[in-house]
Amino acid sequence: MPFKRAPQAFSSSIKKVTIGTGDKAVTLGGANVMPLYTFDAPIENKPAIGIEVSDRGINGSLPKMAEYYAGAETLVDQAKRAAEIPGVDFLTITLDSADPNGDNRSVEDCVAECKEVCDAVDIPVAIQGCKNIEKDEQLFNKLAEALQGKNVLLLSAREENYKSIAAAAGLAYGQKMGAESAVDINLAKQLNVLVTQLGVQPESMVMNLGSAAAGYGFEYVASTMDRVKSAALAQNDSMLQMPVVTPVSDDAWGVKESIVSEDDFPEWGPMEERGIQMEISTAAACLACGSDAVILRHPDSVATISALIAGLM
Amino acid sequence: MALKGLDIFKLTPKSNCKECGFPTCMAFSMKVAQGAVDIAKCPHMSDDAKAQLSEATAPPMKSLTIGTGDAEYKLGGETVLYRHEKTFVSRDIFAVTVDADNFDEKWAEVSKVDYDRIGERMYVELLDLEFTGDVDKYAELAEKAKATGRAIVIDTTDKDAARKALEVCADTKPLLNGANADNMDDFVAMAQEFKVLLGVQGTDLDSIYDNVKAVEGKGFKDIVIDLGTVSVKSAFENAVQVRRAALKGGDRTMGYPSIVNVAKLAPGDLHMQQALASLFTVKYGSIVVLENLTYPMALPLFGLRQNIYTDPQKPMTVEPGIYPINGADENSICCTTVDFALTYFVVSGELERSGVPINMIISDAGGYSVLTAWAAGKLSAGSISKFIAENGIDEKIKNHTLIIPGKVAVLKGELEQKLPDWKIVVAPNEATDLVKFLKDYSAANA
After folding, report:
1. Quick one: A38-312 is in which CATH superfamily?
2. I want to staple B409 with a disulfide (CB 3.0 to 4.6 A). Which of A223, B12, B239, B426 is the partner?
């Protein structure tokens, strides 16, 4: 007697959001089944992978990273190199040096450099700010204007600065924007409602539900995503149907396991390998919970996660 | 099918004899219906009625144990598909493959991974014994594996090899994996004879289903379902379909724990095995078999598992105490926050990043976040000063500078009164601002 299958395809689906232009444009979302459940119904757009490059440059103390990016000194060269990594769907620039508590680089410089990068690569581009609310607001406003026609994804607007970012990115200059909330389904929905009330189409925005590295409160990420996906699909909650983009790299490469030196923890083994495995574990778990795109930093992590996605589709 | 209290009540003697520990038969029946009490507690019910009821009130997924003594682990017994619906109960356990040729080398490496994380010992729970063709060598391998004290998976479909290994290590309650359509009679007989768990395999979901049904048909139910090694896609589908059929579809034939061998799904590729082990930790693996589990693999994987299997109703907490960061000593400044594990990790991570030596003082704040703990009265000037006094921190640490979370800046005045020889400093509201704050502070006070 064969096993009785009970496919769980829903009549609602995750909204489709396209970033970039031309042949290499990437569409996120579109699924009407729980994450990766291709056996319930075909998944139209596979989860995407963004490769992150920081305007502070790559971490040259990691031998494999240094080797991969050898000879690429400028952000533009590093971005071009990153865009060639097999399995990469879009590029993500992180404007770390804009942080007023750090290098405090000017908005003009950042915008000019991002424009240069966007002109140099042919894959879609997402841009992460420096996490400072006021600075990000200024950055995203100028970026939205300067990169008109590129259809970039700006990550991300938060409760404190969504208004002007939504006006510039989502309305005036036709870019895509991320809405970031702190690992809570209600906060996520509230922000989405606020942004769409300004007139931004749900098809022009993605959600960053917040993230955490494996072992660092990932249960909140997992349960928030579980709940968001079931509300979006089973209850047709249109304010939670935006695709989920999760910046994995920043958390994965920031925790103790990825940054303490081998001299201090000899039994833990090489630092770079620890960071890669942390990034892989976190990304795989995010995809299992419902990320429609993950942002990664290491070429080895990209290789593994893209093979994982291909294996599951 | 879940039974109602009234259906159960009809089968009781209705004598209110109280021998079950409840005042009335009705009260007892209601508890049984909720799954809170076992029907066997009623001494007067007929065996027929009990059998009928225990079948109907049995949990949708069987609970089993593998191993013995210190190395005994619970498998299965899950009742929900998503942890927020209630909680996951049996965390997945990890196995590393060993064979007759590589045992010594592998074990030397695997045994090194052994550490504590938030009160939980982290190590490889199982050894998966691969059969390489020589039956006697396989028995020796089982002998060696048994000597390690870890629980065992006998990973072979060869009946002679299986018997040899069982003769050596059956008393450690291993998992015999596994039975398939060809060897089923022998394997079920051996599992019954040696009283061990039996892994059941199949070429696809339908044949897994048929084989499990056939094993059940022989009266054996200590089953673990092998999710197969055909492809990543099919193993993942099987994991979801099996668990969903058991918990949502009410199909008892799928109501067993699972085993997934990611070593065979991605041979030689430890990065992919890591990705797969993480995937199956989130979605429905009970035993995950890897080729190796080095520190770089273990640190994220065990952390992820600890997170996923946290009961959502009970926050993770860290032990109260003094945690020196960046090589802090008695002359380093102090800071305090709550014992909620997430807060602890976020704050300690930023403190580490600052590079400033600092003593982190964690008092018992009920496992709440800073503001919640403050609102609940679990984090107050009284609780902090009491903790400092009771633990002799005045003497242990000479530098009497205490940095408090910005969100409870309101405590500053009262703390200054209660700890007159301490200097109280207020930190920023957000942990992300700590690095700059501490660097500036230590520069200004150098």
Report:
1. Dihydropteroate synthase-like (3.20.20.20)
2. B426
